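Recall that a protein's primary structure is simply its ordered list of amino acids. Everything else, from secondary elements to tertiary packing, is in principle encoded there. The following example makes that idea concrete.
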Amino acid sequence: MRGAGVQRPMVSVPRNRNATRATPWWAWLAGALAIVGAIGIGLYLARTGPPAVSEMPGASKAAPAPATPPPSNIQHPIDQAAVASDASPLPALDASDAAVLAALGALTGEGLTALLNPEHVIQRIVATVDSLPRQKIAADALPVRGASGTFAARRDAGREEIDAKNYARYDTYAAIAKAMDAQKVVAWYVHYYPLFQQAYRELGYPDGYFNDRLVAVIDHLLATPDLAQPPALTQPNVMYEYADPALESRSAGQKLLLRSGPENEAAIKSKLREIRDVLTSQPTPPGDATTPPAPNAPTAHPDGG
């Protein structure tokens, strides 16, 4: 299926032309949501593999500015999170990778950190989270390395559908999600929040508040439909598409969850709800909460390739 991109550039990095092209762009969902519990990681990666990164836009050697009182239009101030505060000093954003990876490793073990791209971790997470409700994701911004194998489809009763064997490729990532401690993950995120906020502003949102965006994206992912059977596909050209126009019009983030399979999707959603509850000190609202995707964005396809 056709490759991914974004309507707006997320990062500027050189591509590795020798990287493998066998893996679709699916290995990140909770790597990108490492802040969110690193839950779905393993669901997305560029077909060219993880590119080497020399510099991220807006990199700053200055230490992060202290958090300022949130303006009245902020819906989810970071200080409402139901976790203990950590007053230890933070590194500068462009010098934060080692500390961030070490802290994540202490929370998750080597399972997650072995999958993460070790450069510009926070900037990649912020860029990918911001892209999830859109129909394209910036391949160069992905924070997690790819899942093994390739997308698989099968013909059943005269129709093409996603092969259930495909779901096993993401079992490892769902297992990591289930093992995450939501309280500890949110405490890690809250401690490093000034760096996430700085990265979000440098991404092109000088007046934005990243925690609001994160909560909105979680709600958007939780609105992904639960399918009773593998979705039907069509193949008008080389790439597969969802036969149901309602699925084909879904965002890249929701399609990624669908592609992980019902059991993995349920595990990821469960962890997202836990994290949201701790992050906002409020229960997850019911209903089909959605975050509008970027207008006029091209369609992402089921295989992500």
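The first strand starts at residue 153 and ends at 156. Residues 1-32, 37-70, 288-305 have pLDDT under 50 and may be disordered.
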